[in-house]
Write a structure and sequence with these properties.
Layout (H helix, E strand, L loop, with lengths): L2 E11 L2 H11 L2 E6 L2 E5 L5 E6 L14 E9 L2 H11 L6 E2 L5 E4 L5 E6 L38 E9 L2 H12 L2 E7 L2 E5 L9 E5 L6 E9 L2 H13 L4 E7 L6 E6 L5 E6 L11 E4 L2 H4 L2 E2 L21
Parallel strand pairs: 1-4, 5-8, 9-12, 10-17, 13-16
Antiparallel strand pairs: 1-5, 2-3, 3-4, 6-7, 7-8, 9-13, 10-11, 11-12, 14-15, 14-18, 15-16
The structure holds fe (ii) ion.
């Protein structure tokens, strides 16, 4: 079906100005945003879209506002939309909008849509590393970092759902939409990628009691672990609160830093995710702190080695 990943996530929110400030500080670019919401785009055109929670054009909400209202996947061609529409119409309502996108629901009740992808080619510098024992990536005399180093979302990476039945939810994406399970937390849920993407996952599902169903978090890829640290640091300095991180996950190998948001879920910065194809054998492990990350840091105020750290001098940290 050539599903290549997430194109957009649509949220119904109750505080458009707060969400606008949050998504702009996160690093997304507002496109056509007004008092009723709009798009916030990464470098490749993938986006978060916000609307008033009571906008009648939105699919029904699963829980109280603010909440995710639709997950939009990009596909390669209109023929893929025909195939998906035909498959899903076997047992559920499928609608086609004026732009040719296909809308339906998954087996957990999340609204899903498919469109010919809006992803556009873009160019952004890689974060080059000098690693003794391997050929240096960075040319001599080229510095690695600077205070104005860009650290912006490049492409929409993944969404995480709380689901009431992870086995049923996984079966829908695997059997009806051709997703592959790359790894799994036993008794919790699968990391999945669509067949048209080699990213470790664009969808992770976590089994929870039914009343918790909803979006747990979403994230965009940045260019490197350094960019995750830099973007997260700037985000914190804008007053947004860290929830988990920075650190590096084991499954997927991606760097992470999670923040609280006014969208009804957490938001993450991620970078340097593993890529897989069908030769990969999925791993499984129990969910635990050790299996959730290789390491975890806590952000600190800046400091210089001219004396003891501030708290050791009895000053506020
Ligand atoms: Fe994540």
């Amino acid at each position: 079906m050539n599903i290549i990943g997430l194109d957009a996530l649509i949220f119904g929110v109750d505080d458009i100005p707060a969400c606008r400030a949050f998504l702009c500080d996160y690093g997304l670019t507002p496109v056509g945003v007004d008092d009723d919401g709009g798009r916030f785009e990464a470098l490749d055109g993938t986006a978060i879209i916000i609307r008033h929670a009571d906008d009648p054009a939105l699919p029904p909400a699963i829980g109280p506002a603010p909440s995710i209202r639709e997950t939009v996947y990009g596909v390669t061609s209109a023929a893929d939309l025909d195939a998906i529409g035909l498959e899903l119409s076997r047992d559920r309502t499928v609608t086609w909008d004026a732009k040719g996108a296909v809308h339906s629901v998954d087996d957990s009740g999340f609204a899903i849509a498919f469109q010919v992808t809006v992803r556009r080619d873009f160019s952004a510098a890689a974060d080059l590393t000098n690693s003794p024992g391997s050929e240096s990536q960075r040319p001599v005399n080229q510095v690695g970092i600077s205070p104005d180093m860009p650290a912006v979302p490049r492409t929409l990476s993944h969404v995480v759902y709380f689901v009431p039945d992870a086995v049923k939810a996984e079966a829908f994406y695997a059997e009806r939409l051709g997703f592959r399970t790359t790894d799994r937390f036993v008794g919790v849920g699968p990391f999945m990628r669509p067949a048209g993407s080699d990213d470790h996952h664009c969808l992770f599902m976590i089994q929870t009691p039914p009343h918790m169903q909803g979006c747990e978090h979403f994230t965009f890829h940045l260019g490197s672990g350094t960019e995750v640290l830099l973007a997260g640091r700037r985000f914190e300095q804008n007053g947004w609160t860290s929830f988990w991180g920075p650190g590096r996950h084991l499954f997927g190998s991606n760097w992470f830093w999670y923040f609280n948001s006014p969208l009804g879920c957490h938001i993450e910065y991620d970078a340097d995710m593993d890529r897989h194809d069908d030769a990969w054998s999925s791993r499984q492990a129990p969910l635990s702190a050790d299996n959730s990350q290789l390491f975890l840091f806590t952000s600190r105020e800046k400091w210089a080695p001219t004396g003891s750290p501030p708290e050791k001098r009895g000053e506020p940290g």
